[in-house]
Design goal:
The structure is a homodimer.
Chain A (H helix, E strand, L loop, with lengths): L1 E5 L4 H11 L4 E6 L2 H8 L11 H12 L4 E4 L5 H11 L3 E4 L6 H4 L3 H25 L4 E7 L14 E6 L2 E6 L7 H20 L2 E7 L1 E3 L25 H10 L13 E6 H13 L7 E6 L2 E4 H14 L27 H4 L8 H13 L2 H6 L20 H4 L2
Parallel strand pairs in A: 1-2, 1-4, 2-3, 4-5, 5-8, 8-11, 9-10
Antiparallel strand pairs in A: 6-7, 10-12
Chain lengths: ~400, ~400
Amino acid sequence: MRVFVAGVDGYLGWSLAQYLVARGHEVAGCDLLLRRKWVEEAGSHSATPIRSIEERLAAFKDNFGKELIFREGDLRDYDFVLEFFRLFQPEAIVHLGEMPSAPYSMIDVHHCNFTQTNNIVGTLNTLHAMKETCPQAHLVKLGTMGEYGTPNIDIPEGFFTIEYRGRTDTLPFPRQAGSWYHQTKAHDSHNIMFACKIWGLRSTDIMQGVVFGTRIDEMGDDERLLTRFDFDQCFGTVLNRYCAEAVIGHPLSPFGAGQQKRGFLPLRDSMQCLTIAINNPPEKGQYRVFNQFEEVYSVTELAEKVKRVGNEIGLNVQISNIENPRIEQEQHYYNPDHRHLLDLGYEPTHNVEQELRIMLRDLSRYRSRIEEKKEVLIPDIRWDGTRRKSRFLAEASR
Amino acid sequence: MRVFVAGVDGYLGWSLAQYLVARGHEVAGCDLLLRRKWVEEAGSHSATPIRSIEERLAAFKDNFGKELIFREGDLRDYDFVLEFFRLFQPEAIVHLGEMPSAPYSMIDVHHCNFTQTNNIVGTLNTLHAMKETCPQAHLVKLGTMGEYGTPNIDIPEGFFTIEYRGRTDTLPFPRQAGSWYHQTKAHDSHNIMFACKIWGLRSTDIMQGVVFGTRIDEMGDDERLLTRFDFDQCFGTVLNRYCAEAVIGHPLSPFGAGQQKRGFLPLRDSMQCLTIAINNPPEKGQYRVFNQFEEVYSVTELAEKVKRVGNEIGLNVQISNIENPRIEQEQHYYNPDHRHLLDLGYEPTHNVEQELRIMLRDLSRYRSRIEEKKEVLIPDIRWDGTRRKSRFLAEASR
């Protein structure tokens, strides 16, 4: 199948291109390489030493014997998107090309506006270009479980059938996103749902949980194929940050009470799930939602897992909660459905500890790169608009 | 009270400034005067001959003895918003400064992107500037009943308490907006709700029905005070378009089957309701939603009212449905709540026929201005992305 990957230089995109080409798909992708700049702006770098896009493309060809058709360009530039779709004629479009950080979007009004316009316009251009050039293609759009927030009821996959005052309807599940970034994913979902309805496009909107991991098997021993691994407050996801902390002897730092529950999945499962979505397109006009995660954990449960595995392999891992820079519920009900992907054949990894062992081993090779930027591990971007480093709660309460 | 009106040169804004100053409020406002350009782009002009902003401001001073503090500027320019709020220190901010047309937003990808970025960034800048300069102020934000779409259950005012799988929560009512423009209002609602939650701002989000009318009493006999009255496919609302059609002997043209139901209210009721909202601010951190309309009618019922009143005063009014350029349900359940404003003292006009008499009389004076642009009465912007004039259904079926 001809698969277009927007954001192919990113954490997920670069992995997905390899995962797909190894399974016989033809892959094209675009990127504006902004993630590299944003992480630099956040004062950090990838723990894994990632290569220039040119070197990456050469490594791709060397390892897989096929080109990754690549163009540097901006999804906000409609003509760029239109021309690329027209030439490549994608059968599936995987849209991973958005600014993916909640804290980055909360820095100030300019970062907020950039995040909202970048993400919304990129998706609107994608929808319009699909309508013009490949209306039969399947848009696999990366959303986030964070769109739903933490309601006090079960979270279905996108839609629910409810009775209200004696009448019944099936409606989109309400979105209560917790950052300007998460809001963009909710806005995208609404826009995509509308485009499917009026133009007969087809889309799978992926409400993905928090991804962790350093690699997929396809990367093998060629360091040039490694995907990026961020550990800063903006672009490092929680479990990835814990692992970076563990390898340099920094205490794992859950936010606040640490009882926030989220859905999590390893990078390899994310690749498996996206590929299942690609291989099983929806009907024309259908907009469907997959909740994509392996299991729900609290951020404290995960810290304890990292501690256990880290101590097994000889690291001395401590946990020390810090002030929560976010405004969010720290103790809440959380029970999201995740049947759709399982019904299509998703086989979850389940063994988080095994994945953590791989991660800690990989990251140990890059300990000095994490050490070099270790000050980015403790957040200072606060949801109340101020900028102040979170203190360890043990210190703050003294 | 010091009230800031964004979009003060518009249909509602110019009326509201007069309504408020006549009731002792101090009013400041901004506008980029884009509505004038958009209507020109749509090939039309206001039926009422509106004056330059300078002449308007002079007329305002002449009639009300007080200045309307005005600056021309762009809500997308954060520094402009910040400085104006800092100087004026508003206690209430009425945000009417968005691109308000569904068809305009559906023209093409560029109009879609403009609409979404203009509306979203203007609101985000307003929220951030409030937080910086006047966090106690009350944001009265113009949304639309169109955010909800036409679900098969009752529509509450913003939130509903539901039971789902044995648990209960109060959640935002799902939004299913029917154009790129209506989507922006849903996006705004989500963004504002979030800002109230994290920053303790207070806001009333107005889900307004379709407004009709040529005047409010404050405009008296000074033609310079008249508000604009659009009748083109983009900026003319349905009942206003019917009245323009009636005075030039053009058949009233409901879309499709004509059983689309919407909430409607006269311009004078809109002013009354907005003022009630301003005078009764919510608590700090509270985000509340008012469904703002007087009564629900189908677009055919309204056409019949215009026909009846028009024929009474000697016009020869016919009704002839046209092909629906939109993709929407033409027959549906519709039962939205509208208690909040009534509970705060809203006294609906109720007498639609009386309002129609005033409108037809006012518009008769400007018959030639409508005649001159009558080709804009029949839409050609279609939701499927094509551009083709709707035919009368009687002709189309021959």
